[in-house]
Amino acid sequence: MADKKAYLKVDGIDETIELPVLHGTEGPDVVDVRALVSKGLFTYDPGFMSTAACDSAITYIDGGKGILLHGGYPIDQLAEKSDYMEVCYLLLNGELPNAEQKEKFVSTVKNHTMVHEQLSHFFNGFRRDAHPMAIMCGVVGALSAFYHDSLDIDNEHHREVCAYRLVAKIPTIAAMCYKYSLGQPFMFPRNDLSYAENFLYMMFGTPCEEYKPNPVLAKAMDKIFILHADHEQNASTSTVRLAGSSGANPFACIASGIAALWGPAHGGANEAVLNMLEEIGDADNIPEFIAKAKDPNDPFRLMGFGHRVYRNFDPRAKVMKVSCDEVLKELGLENDPLLKIAKQLEQIALEDEYFVERKLYPNVDFYSGIILKAIGIPTNMFTVIFALSRTIGWISHWNEFHSSPNKIGRPRQLYTGPTMRDYPG
Ligand code: CMC
Q1: In this structure, are residues 187 and 207 in contact, taking their beta carbons and an 8 Å threshold?
Q2: Does residue 402 carry a catalytic annotation?
Q3: What digits encode the pLDDT tens for the residues 16-52?
Q4: Which of these is catalytic: 307, 314, 397, 402?
């Protein structure tokens, strides 16, 4: 909707340029700058600090107030009252399911949990010590070679089938990455278990003995999935939308999202948190690391602190902190040395002027790293679990993009290279 206008006066252009101001249902108004190109102007916003790249009805974040809503529902309520399958339905369809819709959704996802047997051969091409995110990028991208029957991106039903396939197969592939690194046999999914229980089973079960997922750990896992499910136009989701805008198939688009997520400033942070805690090694060393983080001449940052959008406590981190305490208690790990360092670091950073002034609160990855470590998940699998959880967000945004008229994403630039010159000689 646009009933306000912005007026732009530029030196050298006589007319005042009139731009519509759009407003959504929540959040800041948006100046529609699309007409600027016809006046010979581009906007400039590296890092997209002030740029809305699309309109979307899926997720809303108010970083100042520490609010995260999916389909209008606050994340803490979803984490408390809902489960991951329900949140997946909500992100894909915009509404919570009724009992019948939920049952159908869950059973359809379960129908797709196995991967094509040929896909398992892909793993043999990787070194056993390969980073599982490297394997994820390759294997998820390769899914497009297996499911030709649903690749028409203009067909709503095909898009839906792809969403089911991705949500169902990602835990299977993620667990296969782990099993491959151990040299253990891949575990087939068990459809009598919940989504989170099945993931723990495929990670930690073996064909030799019965494995019963611990309900406290399965609940914590489900919360991790919910809390990472979507986060509006972050780097990986924007990557998926941009890849999707060229008409690329959904499996390729999700693989591009996985690649973007891998970096330590984004999804790689949960892994970086644990590496940092190990590097700190002893609570006595915390002040040294805090000083490094505060030193403007030192690139070191406290991993798991700060967020581009949240300038208040990350609402996901609040839920994760409670879940973290539950897991540590269940496993009797309250005195684990690494986890003790984490708790002390959190306390110091929450009180230190540098962090308080800059509103650098612990983010979701600070606590999720600790929970995953306590559950026994190796550090290099942390980002894989983020990717698993975020797949529903990525595919929901990809689907939203293709559900209405769209354009290929094609940013422009401020050129700073040489002007035209003749080839020498
Ligand atoms: N440790 C120490 N100082 C920090 C940190 C940190 N973790 N984060 C920001 N700062 C400082 C930064 O040096 C700057 O200080 P000054 O104003 O004196 O120059 C100020 O805070 C603002 O930082 P910024 O770089 O402008 O903030 P940004 O919005 O560009 O960066 C961030 C956001 C998440 C990349 C950054 O806070 C960071 O690198 N954090 C650590 C990595 C991390 O935990 N990432 C996970 C984010 S949550 C999961 C997800 O959604 O992907």
Answers
A1: yes
A2: no
A3: 999 999 999 999 999 999 999 999 999 999 999 999 9
A4: 307
Give the type of residue at 404.
S
Q: What number of other Cβ atoms are within 10 A of residue 42's Cβ? A: 12
- Would you say 71 and 90 are in contact if contact means Cβ atoms under 8 Å apart? yes
CB of 230 shorter than 6 A to ligand 1: no
Give distance in angstroms: CA of 62 to centre of ligand 1.
17
**Residues 206-242 pLDDT 10s:** 999 999 999 999 999 999 999 999 999 999 999 999 9
pLDDT at 107 over 90: yes
358 lines ligand 1 (CB under 6 A): yes
Give catalytic status of residue 365 as yes or no: yes
Residues contacting residue 323 through CB under 8 Å, at least 6 positions apart: 219, 220, 223, 224, 367, 371
Is there a catalytic annotation at residue 11? no
Reading the block at residue 408, the tokens are 């290929």
Residue nearest to atom 9 of ligand 1 (CA): 306
pLDDT in tens, 358-381: 999 888 888 888 899 899 999 999
